[in-house]
Amino acid sequence: MAMHHYLRLSFILLFVVTSFFCVYFIIKKRRNKKGPKLLSQEKYNASMIDGMTEISVSNNSVFNIWPYISELKAVKILSNKVKESDLIHKVYRNSTNDFEHILLATEKENRFVKVVVDINKKKPMGYLFLDL
After folding, report:
1. 3-state DSSP call for residue 86?
2. How many whole angstroms from its chain centre is CA 129?
3. pTM surpassing 0.85?
4. CB within 8 A of 96, min separation 6: which ones?
5. Above pLDDT 70, what percent of the chain?
6. Which residues contact 49 (CB under 8 A, 6 or more apart)?
């Protein structure tokens, strides 16, 4: 009977230790999660090669920005008060079709969040604030 008791205690101890390791790694992973990053002026200037031309927002070739917009809203860079239909103000693309600049409206007039997208890599490079 004593052997059965020690066996049960060892399984309980093993379960507790394994649970602590799982919780530790989950917390560590959440802390290391990368969010949207503020773009440096050098990277922004490098994305403006050979001028920018405006393209229509309804164009199907525009990068799917909605997952990135959700990340911006989660870290409170964009407000949830702006309607999604009014969120994308303008879209610009450089002449080499490497980068897109997407202007997102904010609550304040003439203040935008500009998202720079690398079309070749199919991912956003970052964002920056734009006051007009």
Report:
1. helix
2. 15
3. no
4. 49, 50
5. 95
6. 94, 95, 96, 98, 99
